[in-house]
Specification:
3 helices, 8 strands, 201 residues, 32% helix, single chain, alpha+beta
């Protein structure tokens, strides 16, 4: 029995709608996957702060380790040296002398881990492992070893700044490459890591 033109038209329209919806859904899904993969590839550290169990910061020849305790908070595994007290004033005092500020180092570490997670790569300079002496990575100013709650640790070494002074050379291990990142994002973190020292080195 021949199919009427009206019925054939309805079937053709329905088929086109199904194809269009499927194509749109597929593009959205794979596009989202591609965006997520691209974002992860640009991150210096893909670990979020909450997934980190332990962090060791090694600067100025000394190492300080922070580990997540039973309360879920980051805390130093050994005492950290307190800031040096200001000398007693002599003579006429015109301004009050404030005591050294006691910093909650665990909370600061959590904040800096979030900054590292949000830090993106400006440019990949070296894709294969190497010494990186020309980038100041043979004697890094800071080596941060980040251990997740499960899985292998990641070591991030911070070298010298670029000639323009607006970026820092960084080596990630793994994968062992050398990348360039914005200095302004991590400047406070580098200063903090270089300022804390063990109470009994």
């Amino acid at each position: 029995m021949p199919v009427s033109r009206g019925r054939a038209g309805v079937r053709l329209t329905s088929l086109l709608v199904i194809i269009l919806v499927s194509s749109t859904a597929g593009a959205w899904y794979f596009g989202g996957q591609a965006t997520e993969a691209t974002t992860t590839a640009k991150q210096v550290v893909s670990l979020t702060s909450g997934n980190v169990q332990k962090v060791t910061l090694q600067a100025t020849g000394q190492a300080v380790t922070f580990e997540r305790n039973a309360d879920g908070k980051m805390a130093p595994t050994s005492p950290i040296a307190t800031p040096t007290a200001a000398p007693a004033p002599v003579g006429l005092v015109t301004t009050p002398v404030l005591p050294p500020v006691q910093i909650d180092t665990g909370a600061r570490i959590e904040s800096y881990l979030t900054q590292l997670h949000d830090l993106t790569i400006d440019r990949v300079l070296v894709k294969t492992p190497g010494e990186g002496a020309e980038y100041g990575l043979d004697k890094p100013v800071l080596v941060a070893t980040i251990s997740p709650k499960s899985g292998a640790p990641v070591t991030i070494s911070f070298g010298s700044g670029n000639p323009q002074g607006n970026a820092v050379y960084v080596r990630r291990d793994p994968p062992g490459d050398i990348v360039l990142v914005s200095r302004y994002t991590i400047d406070e973190f580098l200063k903090f890591a270089q300022s804390i020292t063990p109470a009994n080195p």
